[in-house]
Amino acid sequence: MIPFPLKFENRVKNDLFLGEELLTALNTETPTSVRLNPHKTKPNLPFQKEIDWCQNGYYLTERPSFTLDPLFHAGTYYPQEAGSMVLDSILRQLDLPEQPKILDLCAAPGGKSTLIASFLDNKGMLVSNEVINSRAKILRENLSKWGHTNVVVTNNDPEHFEKIPNFFDTIVVDAPCSGEGMFRKDPDARTEWTEDNVQLCAARQKRIVMDVWDSLKAGGYLIYSTCTFNEDENENNVEWLLNNLEAEIVSVELKEPIQKDRIQKGFYCIPGKTATEGFYIAVFQKIGKIPSFTSKFAYN
Question: Is 227 a catalytic residue?
């Protein structure tokens, strides 16, 4: 097993919120989970139990060869990390219009977009965006297999959405991050982690949210998430955004073992406490309008 980066290991050990139990969990086998397409045939998979926070989400007893299964290619299910399925529970608690317009900003390969498509159930519209062209093609393929007609796939930078201000009812930003939650599934990710990259990611995450903020309606929701555990990319960014946007935190209910974050404004799925790889999520509501001045901000 590839060892943890020393600075990451020391930080976790010294963080009472996380503790050494996280390190132990990250060295165990990753749980396998899928989300079923409610409009298609139920596949014959080794189901173990339902996932409490997601309709149609299930843990499996083992990981099959998904790419060899015709029903996978037919879009009857989507292999998705269980923690990220928390999005389903959150969407169902928001006060949305009957025909909501939702933007999934950083959408590839399509796990959250297929979840949102199932939530919308052919009502409203989902714009599923991916900035990297090669990944946008994979996203389009996965959404095509999922089979909903109210989905548009785009290949744009976040700042391009400034051209449609006050348009979306909800924006989902599953922000590119330092990937500490990947340490369990992909030990090679441990070799790529550095403190400098954490800071780079935190600055990029602020920029992404600020670039897309004007396209969110007043009263609309921005759902921010990462697959990492550090404060810089999670709680500190939440506080920064609250200080620099006309926004407030939305109170949602997520049951244990999902737990509130260090500042009681977002939520974590922490390996060892939840059967997940690791996930963080917080929900903002836009309470006013701000001018398009995001380029003036220093993102550090």
Answer: yes
Q: Which amino acid is located at 146 in the chain?
A: W
pLDDT of residue 254: 96
Q: Is residue 241 part of a domain?
A: yes
CB-CB contact of 198 with 226 (8 Å): no
Residue 269: Cβ within 10 Å count? 26
Domain count, the chain: 1
Distance CA 161, CA 134 (A): 20
Please write down the HEC assignment for all residues of 174-222: ECCCCCHHHHCCCHHHHHHCCHHHHHHHHHHHHHHHHHHHCCEEEEEEE
Specify the 3-state DSSP secondary structure of 248: strand
Q: Is 225 helix (H, G, I), strand (E, B) or coil?
A: strand
Q: With 0-12 CB in 10 A as exposed, 13-18 as middle and 19+ as buried, what is 170?
A: buried
How far apart, in whole angstroms, are the C-alpha atoms of residue 63 and residue 61? 7
Element (H, E) at 90: helix 86-91
Where in the sequence is the domain holding 257, given as residue range(s)? 82-296
Helix, strand, coil % over all residues of the chain, rounded to 5: 35, 20, 45
Helix (H) or strand (E) holding 35: strand 32-36
Enumerate residue ranges in the chain where pLDDT < 50: 290-300
Among the listed residues 54, 177, 201, 227, the single catalytic one is 227
In eight-state DSSP terms, residue 274 is B
pLDDT tens readout for residues 160-187: 999 999 999 999 999 999 999 999 999 8
- pLDDT at residue 1, as a whole number: 81
Residue 211 burial (CB count, 10 A) = 20
CATH number of the domain where residue 105 is located: 3.40.50.150
Residue 55 lies in a domain: no
